[in-house]
Amino acid sequence: MSSSPDSTVPDVEQPLLDRFQRPLRDLRISVTDRCNFRCQYCMPREVFGPGFEFLPRDQILSFEEIARLAAVFASLGVRKFRLTGGEPLLRNDLPKLVEMLAAIDGVPRARRGARFRAVVALVLPGGRQFVREGVIEGRIALEPRGESGFGYDPVFELPDGRTMAEIGREKQDVSHRAQALRAMMEVLNTVARGGGDA
Ligand code: SF4
Q1: Does ligand 1 have an atom closer than 6 angstroms to the CB of 37?
Q2: How far apart are CA 142 and CA 85, in angstroms?
Q3: Which SS3 state, helix, strand or coil, does residue 28 take?
Q4: Is 153 helix (H, G, I), strand (E, B) or coil?
Q5: What global pTM score does this model have?
Q6: Whole-Å CA distances, 117 to 79, 131, 136, 147, 156
Q7: Cβ partners under 8 Å of residue 61, min gap 6
Q8: Does any ligand 1 atom lie closer than 6 A to the CB of residue 20?
Q9: What is the pLDDT of residues 122-170, one digit of tens each?
Q10: Which residues neighbour 94 within 8 Å (Cβ) at sequence distance 6 or greater?
Q11: Phi and psi of 73, rounded to 5°?
Q12: Do 140 and 114 meet the contact criterion of CB atoms below 8 Å apart?
């Protein structure tokens, strides 16, 4: 894999418009068809069982191809790239792709917004259901920074300018997972005290 993708935005005059003549600003990029979950509505086990064959490697876009396409879309007015899958973190070296997308000309710093979200669900015997979430707003850093953390942490910049990989043990307090789990702990405590609608 090359470490210096062509991130030059080609000179295209006409912006992309949808059928209501609104400019298209978001591009959803699926980086893999694989996922290690089997949500019933998405990958039912009877279809995506052990024998299911996912796409062969040579039919998956390389990071260079994705970055090139993203640069073309940026030239057409797209200002937000959403990485998805399957489960995008199953793609090896995904932070490298984020770094390559962040380097694309034409996506100003103010438009590099990013969000971490974690959702915790609890279903009690009897069927009561509780869902709690944690969210952190940030932006995609211009380059990876920090030694701690994993996954997107080195390229996820918090409002104070540090990346999630630079905040060390503070992450235990501020992370989206910590927020979601704390909220669910309150639910569990309320339920344990006999509360009805935690
Ligand atoms: S891609 Fe998302 S919705 Fe589909 S199986 Fe995986 S986790 Fe579930």
Answers
A1: yes
A2: 23
A3: strand
A4: helix
A5: 0.60
A6: 21, 13, 7, 22, 12
A7: 31, 69
A8: no
A9: 999 989 999 999 999 999 887 789 998 888 899 899 999 999 999 999 9
A10: 31, 83, 88, 151, 152
A11: -65, -35
A12: yes
